[in-house]
Amino acid sequence: MLDFTTLQSLAVLLSILCGYLITRQLKLSQLLQDKQSQHLVFGSAASLFVLWMFRTGIYDGLSVHFLWLAALPLLLGFRWAICSATITLLGVTAFGKEPLTMLGVNFLLGVLAPISLTYACYTLMVRILPRNRFVYVLCGAFIPGALALGLKMLSLSAYYYVDDIFAWSTISDKYLMLTSLLMMPEAMFNAMTVLLLVLYKPQWLYTYHHKMYLGK
After folding, report:
1. Which run of H or of E encompasses 50?
2. How far is CA 18 from CA 22, 29, 83, 153, 200, in A?
3. Which of 6, 87, 93, 193 is the most exposed, fewest CB within 10 Å of its CB?
4. Could you read off the pLDDT of 98-121 as tens digits, one per residue?
5. Cβ of 204: how many Cβ atoms within 10 Å?
6. What is the pTM of this model?
7. In 8-52, where do the E strands start and end?
8. Would you list the DSSP string of 75-109?
């Protein structure tokens, strides 16, 4: 029998509520009719699954992996990015890479929070910064990629401590110390992904428009 803590149970309930609020405005019929959207949503989920299966760590239970969640909302939009990443999360949980009791926490802190942060960065970028491809890649993928990874690791660290799963000395020495080592590669990974899409497949990017960034 699964032994959920109080915080884990609350996280599951909050995840269900957030999932409902996000998905109720999605047009599933449009996805079923649009082959390209199907390929992008499920192809992204499959790519994330492969990426998230490869992880490392220096302490049992405190593993880390690259996210690729800054590029995802630029490619799919906010809601479909959440859905695609959730499919991946369910997959890695089913394969035993994440405990089932952590499903709600991982959704809130590992999917919803990073994607919300990166999409907020994109929205702010569109409103206040010049519209060119360099700004799109730098402020839409590179910087948000590093911030998203940092947010996830910091918020998970706080959760582990508050829920008394690990001692703070263990979290600080075995988990948080990896944040600075991973932020730059995460930023580069997202930026290179978006840059390649801008150059070769701009029509795949939900948030990229030629008229906006290249003029007529």
Report:
1. helix 35-53
2. 6, 21, 11, 21, 34
3. 6
4. 999 999 999 999 999 999 999 999
5. 16
6. 0.93
7. none
8. HH-HHHHHHHHHHHHHHHHHTTSS-GGGHHHHHII
